[in-house]
Amino acid sequence: MPPVPGRRPPSLRVSAAGWSFVTPFLVVFTLMIITPLVYSMYLSLFRNQLMGGTTFAGFANYVTAFSDPKLWDGAGRVGLFLLVQVPIMLSLALIAALAIDSGRLHGKSFFRVALFLPYAVPGVVAVLMWGFMYDDRLGLTASLNDLVGFALVDPYTKKWILTAIGNIVTWEFVGYNMLILYSALKTVPNEIYEAAAIDGANQFRIVRSIKLPAVRGALVIATIFSILGSFQLFNEPNILKEIQPALISSYYTPNIYAYNLTFVGNQVSYAATVAIVMGLITAVLAYVVQLRGTRRDA
Amino acid sequence: MTITRNRRVALGAMATLLAASLTACTGGDGGGGGGGSEGASAEEIEAALEEGGSITYWTWTPQAEKQIEEFEKAYPNVDVSLVDTVGAGEGNTKLQNAIAAGDGVPDVVQIEYQSIPQFQLQGQLTDLTAYGFDELESLYTASTWGSVSQNGGIWGLPQDSGPMALFYNQEVFDEVGVEVPTTWDEYIQVARAIKEDDPDRCLANDSGDPGFTTSMIWQAGGTPFQNDGETVTIDLADEGTSRFAEMYQPLIDEELICQLPGWSDEWYQALGDGTIASVALGAWMPGILEDGVPDGMGTWRVAPMPTYDGTPTNAENGGSTESIPEAAENKLLAAGFLKWLNSSDESIQAFMETGGFPATVEHLESEEFLGYESEYFGGQKINEVLGAAAADVNEGWQYLPWQSYANSIFSDTAGQAWLDKSSLLDGLAAWQEENVSYGTDQGFTVNG
Q1: Choice between B397 and B19, residue whose per-residue pLDDT is larger
Q2: Which residues does UniProt assign to the signal peptide (chain B) (predicted)?
Q3: Residue B164 β-bridge partners
Q4: Predicted confidence (pLDDT) per residue in A39-89, tens digit
């Protein structure tokens, strides 16, 4: 019988090859992402008690979570952090990227490396370092206040501690975000700049009409990363807590809250609930940013 | 705020989830016990030690290495592998995770007295009565034995004790021209004198430490926590607690104590250079000073705790036991090692030689111990002071069954007093409220 002309079903060999490419990813993805996610959802349906052990609780943990002042206190704090720190950090990163890309900066590669360097410092070390500088008896803060003769900066107070954390985070991650934006700027072909120059566009016009649209996608990505980072704020306050226990509460951020509930409070299930609730909020926010950010006519 | 950071945090979160999941897996058999034939006689334990095998021992005590060396000399067939758990807090977390995972559970583990209930109530510790350890009661001081035997079982053997004492820097006291305070009123006056002499110096440091605060309440005669396993009573306004809070309030209000958390590098430095002139801590402190503050050689002395009205009164601060987890693999051998570790003369001698403060009456009362002249303390017979301190410890103190958690939320509530110079009693009331609600959630009947 002659072979049937036209479309053939994909051969088993081809599809096997496809699967063999995808499988390593799928295995890791299932093991490291799906499994813990499903497990924590499962866990969040239980209740742990020192007296009485673990019992099924349905959605009771979610009901508790939605009216838990500690959780919303922490969530509000990281929300505020997100609204203030992220725009500042990304603006600084953008300015730095534009400056380095402008070609008018002497020692361009020095600045690029210098700005990026804090990112290479391990987070814990960075916080310890800043934690020491903030000290108003021995640290840089003390020297600064001595110099001006009054308490100009006082990071270890209720009023300033969140700002102090924002400062550390900004210091750590401006360089990284600058690099993302700078690499987006590098993809703009030279011809466009030449054309703009022929049209008589000045530098500001070039920035506004060519460079900013060019980094838009990168900016969306950087924003999404920053939203995730803000909502998962943990390292910085958790290390500062050791220096200033009364300034950073056990529910200062949702992650600190979940951590304390799990490892000290014997409330693994409720901690899982907190993690899922915060995960959902973060996912929704990131999605909204992505939708808005990629809209053609925005 | 980058991928790497998110990943790092995500890893942390995942570890949390993983620990969480594992707890759920094994949650069911928490109270199940380790099978039918639990327990053994002294002969069986001895035979097991002779026969040998290997066990794992988790501890943060610096004396452990020396003790294990001695042990392996006595029982060459037993191999003890030592895991350093760094400190009490990390030790708890590590043990909790191992038990939840049902894997890598140590055979013998060091636990602070105050943390015993949190493991015991969940059925995670072995009742050592079955190994005949009830016969060892007379070896230990009443307060340490009371800490390991509760809720109808024996959950460990006391390793050390920490009756409180006032450790002070004689040089600073001489410079300022003050005497060692014997009452808390005098203590406050000394604190003022030191501050006046040099505003950068303090008599003491404290930034709201729950362990210190509870010990101070204990010393003042308070018994704010009472529990019989199911019913818990919390009264952080009882006579003793109020007495402590009223005494302590001026120290906070007048900024007489340095807000410097203990155990930090700055703390050790401040103890060495005279910035902090004294600490009121457990009798294990000489070892810490010798080890962590070499600059203080010859300048430190020890005195009994100041009193409220001239009557000697004292409390324990810290101190720990070694226990055998319910999920330990080699319980018989573990029991043998534990018994040797905390009741044999060789082991306790080795413990004392390296600065440990024992819990055994015989050693606390021995001539050799009491007569020891510490070079670090300028030749002072420190154990005379510390031994007497052990005898004055107030009876009837109990911790909460969830003391670690209670401590973790201390700075949210009571700790605010240190920060805002607000009322310590109000802060303690807020702490009580949080604990009542947590305890009720955890299935206890809580009065408070």
Answers
A1: B397
A2: 1-24
A3: B282
A4: 999 999 999 998 888 899 999 999 999 999 999 999 999 999 999 999 999
Output b/e per residue, B214-249; b: 16+ Cβ within 10 A: bbbbbbbbbbbbbbeeeebbbbbbbebbbbbbebbb
Decide if B230 and A51 are in contact by the 8 Å CB cutoff.
yes
The single residue listed with the structure tokens 């943060």 is B60
- Please name the member of A51, A173, A251 whose beta carbon is closest to the beta carbon of B121: A51
Number of domains within chain B? 2
Residues A239/A3, Cβ–Cβ less than 8 Å: no
- B299 with B381, same domain: the answer is yes
pLDDT by residue (tens digit) across B35-83? 335 788 889 999 999 999 999 999 998 889 999 999 999 999 999 999 9
Exposure letters B77-91 (e unless 16+ CB within 10 A, then b): ebebeebebeebbeb
Domain of B181, in residue numbers? 164-315+375-447
Name the class of domain A62-293: mainly alpha
Kindly state the helix (H) or strand (E) to which residue A4 belongs, with its residue range: none
Q: Are residues B246 and B299 in the same domain?
A: yes
Provide the pLDDT for residue B39: 82
Q: ipTM for the complex?
A: 0.85
Cα–Cα distance list, B83 to A261, B15, B66, B339 (Å): 26, 21, 14, 19
Contact B122 A50 (CB under 8 A): yes
- Residues comprising chain B, all counted: 448
Selected residue of A221, A263, A273 to mutate for chain B interface (largest B Cβ count, 10 A): A263
Query: 3-class DSSP state for residue A51?
Result: coil
Query: Which CATH number fits the domain that encloses residue B154?
Result: 3.40.190.10
Q: How confident is the model at residue A192 (pLDDT cuts 50, 70, 90)?
A: very high
- Interface-testing mutation among A33, A228, A257, with chain B (most B C-beta atoms within 10 A): A228
Which residues of chain B are within 8 Å of residue A86 when distances are taken between CB atoms? 1
To the nearest whole Å, the CA of A99 is away from the closest chain B CA by 22
* For chain B, the helix, strand and coil percentages under 3-state DSSP, each to the nearest 5: 50, 15, 35
Same domain, B238 and B195: yes
Residue B16 in contact with partner chain A when CB distance is under 8 A: yes
Burial degree of A51 (CB within 10 A; 0-12, 13-18, 19+): middle
Which residue, among B363, B365, B356, B410, has the nearest Cα to B384 in the 3D structure?
B365
Of the residues B302, B333, B365, the one at which a domain ends: B365
Q: Both B393 and B359 in a single domain? A: no
- How far is C-alpha A221 from the chain's CA centre? 10
* Mean pLDDT (whole number) for A207-226: 93
Average pLDDT over residues B193-220: 95
User: Looking at the complex, does the CB of residue A39 fall below 8 Å from at least one CB of chain B?
Assistant: yes
Whether B232 is in a domain gets the answer yes
Which pLDDT band, with edges at 50, 70 and 90, does B354 fall under?
confident
Residue B12 lies in a domain: no
Task: Give alpha helix (H) positions in B198-264.
Answer: 210-219, 239-253
CB atoms within 10 A of CB B158: 26
* Cβ distance of A262 and B16 shorter than 8 Å: yes
Nearest CB among B1, B20, B27 relative to A272 is that of B20
Residues B129 and B225 both lie in one domain = no
* CA distance linking residue B307 with residue B63, whole number of Å: 32
Cβ–Cβ < 8 Å for B79, B334: no
DSSP codes, B36-103 = S-----HHHHHHHHHH-EEEEEEE--TTHHHHHHHHHHH-TTEEEEEEE--SHHHHHHHHHHHHHHTS
Q: Residue B380 falls within a domain, yes or no?
A: yes
Distance, in Å, from the CA atom of B157 to the CA atom of B137, rounded to the nearest integer, reads: 9
Residues B392 and B306 in one domain: yes
Residues B142 and B216 in one domain: no
Spatial separation of the C-alpha atoms in residues A29 and A8, rounded to whole Å = 32
Is B434's pLDDT higher than 70?
Answer: yes
Residue B7, in any domain of the structure: no
